Amino acid sequence: MRFATKAIRIGQNPESEHRSVTYPLYQTSTFAWDQIDEEPKVAYSRVNNPNRLVLEEVLASMENGTHCTCFSSGMAAVVAALSLLEAGDHVLVASDIYGGTHRYIADILPRQGISYAVFDACSPESIGATVTPKTKMVVFESPTNPLLRVCDIRAVVAEAQKHGLITVFDNTFASPALQRPLDLGCDIVIHSTTKYITGHSDVIGGALITANPAYGEAAAEWVKNTGASPSPFDAWLCLRGLKTLALRMERHSQNAMRIAEWLTQQEDVKAVYYPGLADNPFHQVAKSQMDGFSGMLSFEFGTVEMAKTAAMNTKIFLLAESLGGVESLIGYPTLMSHGCMTEEERVERGVHPNLLRLSVGIEDADDLIEDLGNAFAVARQSARVAAVKV
Fold first, then answer.
1. What is d(CA 322, CA 334) in angstroms, rounded to the nearest whole number?
2. Is 273 considered catalytic here?
3. How far apart are CA 374 and CA 97, in angstroms?
4. Annotated catalytic residue 46
5. Among residues 89, 96, 170, 187, which one is catalytic?
6. Are residues 297 and 167 part of one domain?
7. Which position among 98, 116, 215, 273 bears the catalytic label?
8. What CATH number does residue 262 fall under?
9. DSSP string for residues in 118-154
10. pLDDT of residue 387
């Protein structure tokens, strides 16, 4: 069964006497037992629920994994993966990782007796320079947030395997429609299903997917014992959104390419970060491991003031955190996705205060470009007025 078909047919055959075409919502906390000596497949929705089980089956299939556990948020999935570590262990985290992941590894893990070091995923050999005898895991992502750097996943995995390390990969920016890291050798894939997988900005959720039974069972035990499971309705909404993932990612990618090309022609824009552009330094490696370039891109204005003014004057692009929904968003990473980092940490990672990030939606691309053009005009005028006052 091919990718687009999996989202609609895996685990979703009509059931019960009513033969519902859409998988029904099981909005219940508990389930009746038929036999006192035989626990049913689903007994209590914190542990499992029919809606969650179907969603997990579909996501595992789409990532070509065998085990999937869904969570109440993407960060819960990150924490579940990191729960494989024990006191005394050491973990390597990519330098340009999502801010929330960085914060948890830097602030919480040391309290549990787990140390960490930073490596550059775009230079896989840096693993060898930072690994220690206690290192157990590598955590990385691609394309990265917010600079859209693309690492060679196979090369990172190969280097990690030399040292016997577990590889944990955040595939949120690409989604399984465009990239399947398990096929490239990763041990664990995590998602914020809040983003492209659900795709409608109406769910908070996460997922951990693997082909390793031990890791899969550990994730299932973790969610059961911590209670970080999604509600039946959230799982149902996520599955509904997942049905159109393949189509949405095509449109997201097409629109983002149009906007990236337009941005390169704007004199006020000093840099555009999008791996779909032929002159992007990560274009070739992205082509080698992705089926498209996604709807995420970032760019830099010449001044901080112009960046802030433009971000506050779009009409179709909404100034908001998050990404991956059908609607277009414009974000300010300095205060949003990477607000938890110090200014020094942000600058070290290339997250400058003149940087804006776009989550390009599925609206008409011409409308989106006109919207940005109008906001840029306001920013230019504001800059001229400010210059005259000086």
1. 14
2. no
3. 32
4. yes
5. 170
6. no
7. 98
8. 3.90.1150.10
9. EE-TTSTTHHHHH--TTEEEEEEESS-TTT-----HH
10. 73
Query: What is the value of pTM for the model shown?
Result: 0.95
Q: Same structural domain for residues 308 and 188?
A: no
98 carries an active-site annotation: yes
Range of the domain at 8: 3-242
Which of 242, 270, 296 terminates a domain? The answer is 242
Q: Can you read off the two tokens belonging to residue 107?
A: 């602030």
Catalytic residue, candidates 180, 195, 346, 349: 195
The pLDDT value given to residue 342: 82
Give the domain CATH number at 13. 3.40.640.10
Q: Do 222 and 282 fall within a single domain?
A: no
In sequence order, the β-bridge partners of residue 206 are 71, 192
| 195 noted as active-site residue | yes
Whether residues 233 and 375 share a domain: the answer is no
Count the domains in the chain: 2
Positions of the chain with pLDDT under 70: 389-390
Each residue's pLDDT tens digit, 57-92: 999 999 999 999 999 999 999 999 999 999 999 999
Tens-place pLDDT, residues 303-332: 999 999 999 999 999 999 999 999 999 999
